[in-house]
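Example for tutorial group B:
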């Protein structure tokens, strides 16, 4: 019984003072290095390496609450999303989480589903819980926030906010030029739900690039998505609407990969083959795009990287960087797969 009791006992907690005694250094020096304080710059690298090695060997774990009280910090940020479980938001959150974990920061996530009352309530709750900054995802910010803020897919210039945006003009060029090179002239468009932060800017870019390339965007071949759904249902009924108009087209440029997958299902039910009869272009390059049948040709947004950049930018501001960029542009990439091919009868 005694052996079982001893085995069940927890290992002794290693304190910062114990690490310092083990190394023959002062607790202040050890704390400065392990907390990566600005004053650590003057400490020799050899000493820093010794401290980190000893902390690892002794299995030292910093006391979060003591650290919080000492520095009057929570080391917590808030992430405000339209959706959490959708493929777009989850990829971005993965990037945010990965970077914050390296910096020993915690984050709280809320999803407002484009409900303004929920958005206001959750924003207040995050502030009440002491977050030190905010990252918004697919959420339009209208007013100057109380905390340092980074907006992913932010398109409004607001004081205090860094917008991380995709170069939509470049994205539209990659997609439309690809379809043009495949001899597509009658191209249908699925416009994004106006509630989505990217919808307006993306469609403006598509129209501008089409004119630049000598292509025509036909209003009768343009359908407005007016539902908020994170599943392929986002595209399915609107592709049906296109077919019901009985106006021929050889390619579809969908708002995103999820709507592209829904559209492909609608086309196949109608007896059409993709890409032999209709080519389909997606947007985002979500994880499932390469595994769908046919695999989706798409414009890649580096979503995980965008989350990492947002977290890095926000922490720089929280840690005292006074200058901050109003906008960080991210470059898109064309990914050609099976869902696009030469226009029929070209």
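The residue assignment follows.
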């Amino acid at each position: 019984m005694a052996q079982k009791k001893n085995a069940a006992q927890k290992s002794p907690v290693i304190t910062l003072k114990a690490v310092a005694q083990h190394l023959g250094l002062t607790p202040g020096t050890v704390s400065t290095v392990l907390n990566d304080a600005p004053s650590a710059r003057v400490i020799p690298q050899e000493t820093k390496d010794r401290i980190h090695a000893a902390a690892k060997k002794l299995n030292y774990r910093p006391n979060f609450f003591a650290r919080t009280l000492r520095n009057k910090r929570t080391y917590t940020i808030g992430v405000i999303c339209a959706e959490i479980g959708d493929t777009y938001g989850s990829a971005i959150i993965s990037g945010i989480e990965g970077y914050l974990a390296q910096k020993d920061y915690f984050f709280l996530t809320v999803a407002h589903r484009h409900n303004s009352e929920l958005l206001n309530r959750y924003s207040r709750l995050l502030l009440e819980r002491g977050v030190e900054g905010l990252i918004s995802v697919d959420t339009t910010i209208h007013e100057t926030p109380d905390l340092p803020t980074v907006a992913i897919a932010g398109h409004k210039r607001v004081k205090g906010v860094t917008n991380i945006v995709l170069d939509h003009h470049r994205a539209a060029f990659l997609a439309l030029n690809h379809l043009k090179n495949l001899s597509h002239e009658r191209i249908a468009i699925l416009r994004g739900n106006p509630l989505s932060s990217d919808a307006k800017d993306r469609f403006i870019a598509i129209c501008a690039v089409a004119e630049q390339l000598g292509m025509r965007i036909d209003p009768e071949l343009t359908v407005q998505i007016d539902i908020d759904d994170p599943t392929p249902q986002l595209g399915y009924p609107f592709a049906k609407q296109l077919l019901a108009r009985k106006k021929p087209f050889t390619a579809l440029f969908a708002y995103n990969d999820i709507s592209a997958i829904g559209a492909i299902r609608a086309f196949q039910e109608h007896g059409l083959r993709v890409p032999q009869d209709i080519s389909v272009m997606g947007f985002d390059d979500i994880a499932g795009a390469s595994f769908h049948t046919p695999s989706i040709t798409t414009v890649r947004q580096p979503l995980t990287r965008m989350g990492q950049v947002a977290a890095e930018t926000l922490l720089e501001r929280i840690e005292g960087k006074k200058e901050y960029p109003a906008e960080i542009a991210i470059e898109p990439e064309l990914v050609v797969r099976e869902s696009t091919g030469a226009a029929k009868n070209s």
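The chain has three domains: 2-58, 74-166+303-330, 168-301. Compare this with the pattern of hydrophobic and polar residues in the output above.
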